[in-house]
Design goal:
- By secondary structure, the chain is an alpha/beta fold.
- Helix 2 links the parallel strand 1 and strand 2.
- Helix 6 packs across helix 7.
- It is globular, with a radius of gyration of 20 Å.
- The relative contact order is 0.17.
- The site of phosphoric acid mono(formamide)ester has 9 residues, from helix 2.
């Protein structure tokens, strides 16, 4: 594997899952593979899980790790070509990328949607510049449209906890005070569509996702109906995708918060969320603290998804 930006980069998904469980059984089995290889993680946005789990995964493989928070201590970066750089950004991404790649073997990048122009976000302008100008394998640590390390960890978690071969997985929009990207729901949908699970997406009108990601999912506007018989509830907020409202918060409807009444409609479903989560907006205290909450095992599997991806990249260096 050269780059990791979406589900298709992994190749055979069942094989990748077997590799993930092999790693989970013994995290230090491949501790020599990354010797004298350096991972550089570049963050344009904040992170707790991605930063720690990816670093831990790299260390398990014997790699060295460097972390750069672009907005803290590095020069502010211009990203557009053709700009007269007379403002507050002293360095251009087009020099910064090849310079950074001199010092490492693999690059991880986190760069969220900016909500300035939908086409810029959906063309993955920043991530693709890293792929084009770094000459190194690039791992997405959440890009404008996807969060594949998260979705892979989510899939590993569902495989561990599912009680039937073909569970019903429901991704539900839930309220949040600020505009969030569509990357996590897009990506989760992309990965669910790559399985044979029954997959349902529920959200208020106006929150339709890009049809490319919705794929074969059933879209249900009635949240209660969607929850009926569900084996997994995957809650997430996202802002509007449609052109007219792109990046906007259209609703903070608290009747969409995942609570005990709604969980009772399910088939004793597990509750999932990628974290960070705003309690009593997205989900009530009772549900996230319940026995059926998988938020911590899900976060733990971020180490496993990152290690599987790094291993595959190291093997093809
Ligand atoms: C981000 C998002 O929704 O994309 C990161 C989630 C992993 N969430 C926030 O910014 C709160
Ligand atoms: N789930 C996730 O990616 O969390 P962070 O934003 O803390 O990395």
């Amino acid at each position: 594997m050269r780059h990791f930006t979406n589900v298709h980069d992994l190749g055979d998904l069942q094989l990748a899952l077997r590799e993930a469980f092999d790693i989970k059984a013994d995290k230090y089995k491949y501790c020599e593979l990354g010797k004298n290889k350096t991972l550089m993680m570049i963050f344009f946005n904040s992170s707790l899980r991605t930063r720690l789990s990816t670093q831990k995964a790299a260390m398990n493989l014997g790699m060295n790790v460097m972390v750069l928070d672009v907005n803290q201590g590095a020069w502010k970066l211009e990203t557009e070509r053709g700009v007269v750089m007379d403002g507050d950004k002293p360095e251009h991404l087009l020099e910064a990328i090849p310079v950074m790649s001199c010092y490492c073997d693999v690059i991880g990048v986190r760069s969220f949607a900016r909500f300035e122009k939908r086409t810029d976000d959906y063309e993955e302008k920043i991530l693709n510049q890293f792929i084009r100008y770094s000459s190194r394998p690039v791992i997405s640590m959440e890009s404008a449209t996807r969060h594949p390390l998260q979705s892979f960890a989510d899939l590993i978690t569902i495989e561990e906890y599912k009680k039937t071969d073909r569970p019903k997985v429901v991704m539900s929009w839930a309220p949040h005070p600020k505009a969030l990207p569509q990357a996590v729901p897009n990506s989760f949908a992309e990965w669910m569509n790559a399985t044979d699970y029954e997959f349902v997406i529920t959200h208020p009108k106006g929150y339709e996702l890009d049809p490319v990601f919705v794929g074969n999912a059933r879209v249900e506007y009635d949240q209660d109906k969607a929850f009926e018989g569900a084996d997994f509830i995957y809650a997430k907020n996202w802002s509007a995708y449609n052109e007219a409202d792109y990046g906007k918060v259209l609703s903070k409807d608290m009747s969409w918060t995942v609570d005990e009444r709604k969980m009772k409609l399910t088939n004793n479903a597990y509750f999932m969320h990628c974290l960070p989560v705003r309690r009593n907006m997205i989900v009530t205290d009772d549900v996230i603290e319940s026995e059926n909450s998988l938020v911590i095992p899900e976060a733990a599997n971020r180490e496993i998804s990152a290690q599987t991806v790094l291993k595959k990249i190291l093997e093809s260096l």
